[in-house]
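ok trying again, last paste got cut off:
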Amino acid sequence: MRRGSRLPERLYGIAMWAVSAVLAVFLIGLGGLVIDDLPRGTPSIPLHPDYPPALELQRASLKKDRDRRVMEREAQALRLEAARKAMASAKEGFSTWIETRKATTDPTQDRDVLERTRRLEQLQGVVRVEDRRLDEIDAAIEAIARSQRAALAQRKALDDAYRPIRARLVFRAETQVFLLRLAFTLPLLFVSAFLVLRRRNSAFWPLYRGFVLAALYGFFVELVPYLPSYGGYIRYGVGVVMTVMVCIVLVRNMRAYLARRRAAESESEVLRRQRVDRDNAYARIDRKICPDCERPLRFSEGQETNFCVHCGLTLYRHCPVCQTRNLAFNRFCLSCGHEEPGRWAGEQRAEEHDVSSAATTPASPHRYGRDDEKEPVS
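nice, full thing came through this time. structure:
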């Protein structure tokens, strides 16, 4: 938006930016709904291969047998503990009885000594039997564990062989989903590039600009959650290509601009001043910039500066009636209100010549003309 433009033109530019933003918001919402309806994520691919039925039956049987043996071992451990306690109790009672026997030295109790000794040996035999059974159960559990480790090794070998196969399946599924989403968003970028390059001076550019903003958001933001592991290369690659294209366009435009400036500066000062828009001229002179060649104006202290030292454009002139110093782009004198109809008639003829030339020449985004004759475009 030009600094020296009229208030309605400024309001129009702000309104057109609002239209672009609102259209972009609605297009982004619509695109988000379309993307949500597309296939999402990776299809269900099994994490493990189909194991042989015999291997699965063996694993189930080993697990069941091991569980049974573990329960049997717990019961056997309880029996062994009970036998040990019974033997410890009998041994303690026998030791007490022996001390009593030694104190009384009753010969009739020798038969009881033999009987108690025999019962104590029987309890010791029970403890040894229960202990041996517990060892047998532990050996059986260890054999089952070895068989389970062998079955697990077979499963691991099958998993190792299946892992690259599953990786290829996942890669293929992710690629299909990503390409489907890319087929929806990438054409929008191409259309946006065409609009930026070919339709920037269109009266409907605010609508095109909203579409461009929505397309950029859809590609660089909406597509991010669905990028596979290699998707970042595509996104950044497209960003690099777009940056290079923008750089090429800017370089070409700058070269064309410099060529036009050299051609314009070779024309007469009157024609160049007639092509400058008054509002634009006021704004640039306020910023101490030449309205035509756009170079900084040079001022000498104590001396009036009436011309641009770079291109010779007339900046200030004196009114022929009251000799008041006015901007050369003023139609009326600041002091007496005198109008120079002859000069403005010449400018009107130059404007009509520009309009007739534009009717026979394709429009160019860098054509010089009066800005107040073009439709205001933000």
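cool. Strands lie at 316-318, 325-327. The chain has a mean pLDDT of 75.
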